[in-house]
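We read letters as residues; the fold follows as tokens. Both lines appear below.
***
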Amino acid sequence: MSTEKIIDQTKPLIYTQLMDVRFSDLDPYGHISTGRYLDLVIGSRFLFSSLHLKMKIEDLASKNLGFFTSKLEINFIKPITGVGQVLVESFIEIIEPGKQRVIFDIKRLNDKKTYANGNYLEHPINLSTKKPQPLPEWCYQYFFKETI
């Protein structure tokens, strides 16, 4: 009987990570600065990957793999005010080879109400050639659930 693991691209792995909102993230009104939203999402993905999947950014770089963002859409629902923590949830959806959509929610801790949600397109890139490439097969285990 085979116990070969199969990656199911219809079952994304949900990255769930607490992220700090620092004083330096705030504008003069005490709201988080607009640009920090994407930093929270991308940072949460790298932190989750490192803590839970044991894949660090240095590991990606050693395999000549990087990512760049080409399009961002954010729905600002409620301002994030003051320092503290937020909960960031995200997952990827493969659109086509060399392009995936990251879907995200940034939520309050106490009641899980959404501050902001949206998506961005990211593209795998070969760091040696600086050219886009399809997502390598070995990466799928970090983005989708396995089935046996």
Q: What stands out?
A: The first strand starts at residue 6 and ends at 12.
